[in-house]
Amino acid sequence: MIQLVKKELGLRYECEVINKYPELFCRRLGRRRRRVASVKEFERLLSREVEYKASYVLVRLNECRNDAVCWRYLRLGVEGWLDAVYRLAGREPAVNVDDYVGRLARGLGFRGVVDLARYLKFLVQFLMDFNYVNRGRGFHDVLSARCRLCGGVIDVTGPLPGVLSSVVRHFRVEHGLKAVSDVEAKVKELRERGAERLEGDVGIKLLRYSASQLQLDRLIVHRLEEVRLFERIGGEYRCRVCNADVGSVVEAVEHALNHHYDVVNRLLGGGQRPGVNEVVGELANLINPDNPESVRHVVKPLVQGILDYINARGSASVTMLTRWLNESEDYRPLIDSLTTGSLRPERVVSIIVEALARHGLVHVDGEVIKVE
Hints:
Elements: H1 2-9, H2 14-20, H3 22-25, H4 39-51, H5 53-63, H6 67-88, H7 97-107, H8 113-127, E1 128-136, E2 139-147, E3 153-155, H9 160-174, H10 180-197, H11 200-226, E4 230-233, E5 236-239, E6 244-247, H12 249-259, H13 261-267, H14 276-287, H15 293-313, H16 318-327, H17 332-337, H18 345-358, E7 362-365, E8 368-371
Antiparallel strand pairs: 1-2, 2-3, 4-5, 5-6, 7-8
Helix pairs in contact: 1-2, 4-6, 5-6, 5-8, 6-8, 8-10, 11-12, 12-13, 14-15, 14-18, 16-18
């Protein structure tokens, strides 16, 4: 065939024929021109169709209610993953998608793709929680899933067949849920337990308590923002001390209690350090010796706020403290009220820090201030 074409076209070498008509003589590219066109397209292919394809399929199953739609989501997911694998290799798919999906389902112990999809649907909708990560501009990816029965974490990134195998194996081996009927029975059992706990007034009271608790959590996190323990990025929070994303309001409070309990305790007024009142009295007399009581109500929150800020950050400087006070809606009016022509905000902060150091409440090492 190649010889005939070469002769007919008057070409010198056989490789010229292959290069001219690769779709006729080579399965590598085929008529569909499957070569990745750009770096951006290559990155998108790796992300959407390979690395996060499994998480995408599981999220779709989580939202799916109709079994006929669910198994098609699974089938299309496998087709997309297979297509990407062959495309990255520069080849045409060499397997039939339906045959591959059927073998995959049977290899995992199911009669076919319909049974596998139904099994996975019940798992993701009732027995698993997704751990999302923000990608900006409203995009979210799922990196892992948590089992509601034992708290185990399952990685859902990487090759789709491997992820599906990990999910099925976890619930079969760890919890004995061999078939769809076993999952349905476990879901029914959990629902009955939940109904018993939430009957009548108990359920209503719990809902009311949850709403009130959320309001309290928001208040606490707002105050922790003011002392610069947290910063808000969109709807999530980041801990400035740990340099880590901590999640929503509830997760932020949990993080603070687990890692910065002393900050929360002091914020709520617990365990005020001995000597604070003495510092306040000394500063009030120093700032306004003729009428110290007129500035005491201003000095006290500034002293406590500075202590909270240093405690939350671990250390600070006079410059950092001054900037924070000036940027705070609560503290700026206080620091401004003590500022005069000769007494600038940074000098007011220095005076407060010096008084705290004299009473042993902070330690000053050069420009670094730490809570004792």
